[in-house]
Amino acid sequence: MNIRKNMISLSLLALFTVSFSQPSFAATTPFTDIGQSGAKDKILSLQQQGVIKGVDDSKFAPNETITAAQGIQLMVNAFDLSLAAVTFVKAPQATDYFSKADNDAWYAESLIIAAVNGLELPNDLDPNAEWTREQFIHQLMKVMETKGNLPMIKLVPVEIKDDHDLTVDYQGSIQRALARDIIELDKENKLHPQKPVTREEAAEMIYNALAYLKSHKPLN
C-alpha cells in the first residue's frame, strides 16, 4: 500500500474543505462588506483567483482578526505550497511538527505543508492564537522569498517610529517587506507590530507579495 499517495489524496480532499477562514469553497459572489475598504480591489482580485474566500458566500469580514492557523492556510493557498516533492516514511501528523496542534483539526494538513516547505514556525505554535502584524509579515516574507528564490537586497533601513515594539528577530523581514512595497507604515511612520493582523490587512499583503513575484520573477 502506498501510504504517501493515500495520504496526499486525503490531503487534497481536506484542502478543498477549508480556506482562509474555513468558508465554502464554492463562493463566487463578490463580497458585499468591503465597500469602504481601501484594499477592495485587491481583495476582489484574490477572490476571483481563488486565493481567498469569505466567511460565507458574500461576506469577507475585513476587520476580523486571524489566527495562526488561518494565516498559514492563506499562505499555503496563495503560494501553492504542497507535499508533492516530499517523500515520507510514514504519513506525517501535525503534532510531529507542532506540539499544540490537533491532528483532527481543519488546519492539520496546512501546518504539515507549511512545516515541510520551510516556514520558520516555532514548535510550540498555538494554531488558535491570534497572529500579530509582525508575525504575519515575517512568515509572509520567508515563504515569498523562498518560493520566488529572491536574491538578497541591499537595505537602507526605514525609520519605524514604534520599532521599540518590534521583535528583534523580525526586524530584517519587516525592513525587506518595506523595501519591496509589501507593506507600508501609517502616516506617523508606525507599523503597530503587536496589533493583531486583520483579514483585510493579510489579504492586501498577500496581494502585494504575489504581485511583486509576478513582476520580478515567476513562481517556481
UniProtKB/TrEMBL annotation:
Q: Keyword check for Ubl conjugation, yes or no.
A: no
Question: Which range is the signal sequence, renumbered to this chain?
Answer: 1-26
Please give the InterPro entries that the UniProt record associates with this protein: SLH_dom
Q: Which UniProt keywords apply?
A: Signal
| Pfam families the UniProt entry points to | SLH (PF00395)
The SLH domain covers which part of the protein? Answer: 26-89, 157-220
Q: What is this protein called?
A: SLH domain-containing protein
